[in-house]
TrEMBL record:
This is L-arabinose isomerase. The lineage of its organism: Bacteria, Bacillati, Actinomycetota, Actinomycetes, Streptosporangiales. The keyword Ion transport does not apply. Its EC number is 5.3.1.4. Keywords: Arabinose catabolism, Carbohydrate metabolism, Isomerase, Manganese, Metal-binding. The keyword Metal-binding applies. It comes from Nocardiopsis terrae.
């Protein structure tokens, strides 16, 4: 059974799009007299590279950069257009001092594409061919300048028409898009964080300076007012969409369905109005307010499926990394480690009732159930129930180390085709780390990995590593 498609969010803060990348082609006027028309010849090469890579990014190709003013003008244009990063391509040898200031002063993530027009040196080459293909020492000169300036950058060497090269550019471009998205991110927090939970606490100004996310506190009263002001048709439309999307529990009353729908739509409207691409709610902040009948469990699941970052208990770090998971690898899912299962060398993954149902098994229906929940002391919250899709998966935890130092703890593995757990009325699955439960957990705990994390399908450690290199986050695979 295919996983159904959720409603499309109108919030630009959560839309996932192709990365928007500038291609900065670098050369110099030295060769003009020797090879008339070389600038146009190599400009056409830059356009061919962009066309070859059109499936991984939207490209803005600069005019060939032949001097410092050209470079600084091109980089200003890239930044003005709001691009996600810049791929530097040596069209011939280009002296580093022509581009050093432009690249080191820019906030755009940078990658050096160490490529050349022709993949092989042949006996037919003449001096023109030597000149067209001499970008390698321009890349060396420029990389040296970036290293000396302390500028972070990625390097991708290869044949530009090779699918493996496109795969590497795709990985870097998605990481660049994630960097740009995090710098614009606002995380809405409804109420306050969970008392006593230390691994989610972070210096908000340090987080803003280092990675970009801004914390935006939303009073529960704003949610209550927004729920009351929603048009009845919007509520009916959401319930109708759920009827066609989920296997809906007949025990759910009309009142329960409507109240849940109003909570979901109210949260989404507040996030849109405040420009938030991620959010977190804490059950006590909702329950102790006194105006709400239930917790917004199903709301969190569908909003994650729409592209919002989410975390429970007021955890800004986890909400940010779930959002990053959407941008970097697609379909980030909020979860935590519940218990170890040593016979299967796996870990039971779940949370209180929230989960991105885009990660559901395709051979089982996604259910919307009536589910009792003692936590919070409120009425039963409608909950979306599914088992995780089997196959390769990756966990990532964002750790605040103090000040502007952050660490990402990453574990690759697989979700097992494990037996059902009939009494577990919340999304769940069993994750077997590639390093085994004992090795993974020893390393996870030594690294300070948090108890809230993002899961993505596929083996994504290399994606997260590139993101860490671009942002200065310490990368710890376990």
């Amino acid at each position: 059974m295919p996983v159904p498609t959720p409603p499309v969010s109108e919030n630009p803060a959560v839309r996932t799009r192709l990365p928007r990348i500038g291609l900065l082609g670098v050369m110099q006027p030295l060769y003009d007299a020797m090879i008339p028309g070389i600038t146009e010849h190599q400009a056409a090469y830059a356009e061919r590279v962009a066309a070859e890579l059109s499936g991984v990014a939207e490209w803005t190709v600069s005019r060939p950069v032949r001097g410092r003013q050209d470079a600084e003008r091109a980089m200003r244009d890239f930044e003005t257009e709001g691009l996600d990063g810049v791929l530097v391509v040596m069209l011939t040898y280009g002296p580093s001092l022509r581009v050093t200031r432009a690249l080191t002063e820019s906030r755009l993530p940078v990658a050096l594409a160490n490529i050349q027009p022709d993949p092989a040196v042949t006996a037919e080459w003449d001096m023109d061919d030597m000149t067209y293909n001499q970008g390698i020492h321009g890349a060396q000169d420029t990389a040296n300048a970036l290293v000396r300036a302390g500028t972070r950058f990625e390097v991708i060497t290869g044949e530009w028409q090779d699918p493996h090269f496109a795969e590497q550019v795709d990985r870097w471009a998605r990481a660049a898009r994630t960097v740009s998205s995090l710098r614009r991110l606002r995380v809405g927090v409804f109420g306050y964080p969970m008392n006593g939970m230390g691994d989610a606490r972070v210096d908000e100004t340090a987080l803003l300076r280092a990675l970009g996310p801004e914390v935006h506190v939303i009073a529960p009263g704003a949610l209550h007012r927004t729920m009351a002001d929603l048009p009845e048709q919007a509520v009916r439309d959401l319930i109708s969409w759920e009827d066609g999307t989920f296997d809906v529990d007949e025990k759910l009353s009309e009142e329960e369905r409507e109240d849940h729908a109003r909570m979901q739509l109210g949260i989404e409207r507040l996030l849109e109005d405040s420009g938030c691409g991620a959010y977190s709610t804490h059950f006590d902040a909702i329950a102790e307010d006194g105006r709400f009948a239930r917790l917004p469990m199903a709301a969190a699941s569908t909003l994650m499926a729409q592209g919002y970052g989410f975390a429970g208990e007021g955890d800004v770090l986890a909400a940010s990394v779930v959002y990053a998971g959407h941008q970097l690898a697609g379909d980030g899912h909020f979860t935590e480690m519940y218990a170890m299962d040593f016979p299967s060398d796996s870990i039971l993954m779940s949370h209180m009732g929230e989960g991105n149902w885009r990660l559901a098994r395709e051979d089982e229906p996604v259910r919307l159930i009536k589910r009792p929940l003692g936590i919070g002391g409120l009425d039963d919250p409608p909950t979306i129930l599914f088992r995780y899709r089997t196959g390769a998966a990756t966990l990532a935890s964002l750790v605040a180390l103090g000040g502007e130092r952050f660490r990402l703890v990453v574990a690759e593995g697989e979700v097992l085709d494990a037996p059902e757990l009939p009494a577990l009325e919340m999304p769940y699955g069993q994750f077997r780390p590639s390093s085994g439960v004992r090795g993974c957990m020893d390393a996870w705990l030594r690294a300070g990995g948090t108890h809230h994390m993002v899961m993505n399908t596929g083996h994504r450690a290399r994606d997260w590593r590139v993101l860490c290199e671009l942002t200065g986050i310490e990368y710890v695979p376990v």
